[in-house]
Amino acid sequence: MKLPIVAYGDPVLRKKAEEIDENYPNLKELIDDMFETMYNARGVGLAAPQVGLPIRMFVVDGSPFGEDEEDEPGDPSVIGFKKVFINPIIIEETGEKWSFNEGCLSIPDITEEVMRPANVLINYLDENFEEQEVELTGLAARIVQHEYDHIEGKLFVDKLAPLKKTMLRGRLDAITKGNIRVSYKMKFPQQKKGR
Asked: Is the domain defined by 5-187 classed in CATH 1.10.510.10?
């Protein structure tokens, strides 16, 4: 089932999410619904707060970044990179910071260059509640860092320079008010009132 994606301005996107256990209700269905929602919106990651749930979980599938485009080889770090992260903890971020044009399903039609460290070491539980630890690099690391920010109550626009954020204020306010068209279902914090 496709879930509505919560838009910028909703308080759930600013909450530090809570850990869950294997008894979380309908977890398998939620994971399936989150993947379906992410694919429908043409995303590569989706965190639970983005569907209105303040829990420490996100799903990723970086396959689109691993595909060839115009004879350019895709990023090998994301080939076959489809995972569920439950109660993740970033242990370490290392390497030189690099810039990449990031976007967010909760902040449609806005992309900006964001600096992040090249590598991340993360500990998490998979969908079977088995503990995993993995070191990621390149775009795989970036996708995980972006989604991890969501469960910490942070958004990619928080990493922008103050002047850039000021320049985006009008567009961000429009998203909050629902004055934007998107190809997927969204839930806006300030829905327009019907006549």
From this structure: no
